[in-house]
Amino acid sequence: MSTSDEKLPLSVLLFHAAMQRRMSLADFAAVLGLSVATLRSYLFEAGSRSRMRSKTVEQMAEILNIPANEVRERAELIPYDDQLFSEWLKAHMQGRFTRASLCTATKISDSAMKNYLNGQTTPDPDNAIRLAEVLDADSLTVARLIIASELRRRGVELPSAPRHERTVPVEPMPEPKPEPASTPTATTVDGATPTPKSDTVIDEATINAYNEQRLLNLWRRLHPQGRRATLTYIASLLAEGM
């Protein structure tokens, strides 16, 4: 039986209840009087919930604050197919957190975070609630994605979600476009800016300015004694012309 529009599967509600209590699966299993293996089978294996004992059903009903018969009804439901948790996590980190910074913010080990991102494992409820809080995500959505991902990993075929219930993927932030490289201005061997090429006629003033700049650059490359000698020679020419 697939998920109805009104009801979430028991597995999602149980996982979310553990998240709200900030408990690991081991601690939550102890509250229910179950072994961790049994709780994991109820959460992540379709069909195993039909074998729940009456006492277990009553304990779940008390924790979830719903009638016992509703526990059995919801036990038959499985979540809709959706994003893998690893894909969801990467999308919500995009442009906001690196793996290292998210580990620091959530106090989750780097090895565990690496496994979440690679899709090798999903977080226990205590780590899932930390991720939901730091990433500012709906905790019930996180619980549903984790349960769905674990069921898919075990080969369970999940029903397609109605359009209005699908998780909207987070669009990754666009990469900034690099600034176009400016074309360097070509220079001649002596360091002067070359005469500009143009289809128009270059006036005499432009040519003279270019020649003066070229001569100045050549003079600057002379040895200091050569520069002084050049200035002395120019001064003598100016004196003769006066």
UniProtKB/TrEMBL annotation:
Gene3D superfamilies: lambda repressor-like DNA-binding domains
PROSITE patterns, A to Z: HTH_CROC1 (PS50943)
Record region (Disordered): 158-199
Xref: InterPro entries: Cro/C1-type_HTH, Lambda_DNA-bd_dom_sf
Biased composition (Basic and acidic residues): 158-178
One example GO MF annotation: DNA binding
SUPFAM superfamilies, A to Z: lambda repressor-like DNA-binding domains
UniProt domain HTH cro/C1-type: residue ranges: 20-71, 98-142
Highest taxon listed in the record's lineage: Bacteria
Protein name: XRE family transcriptional regulator
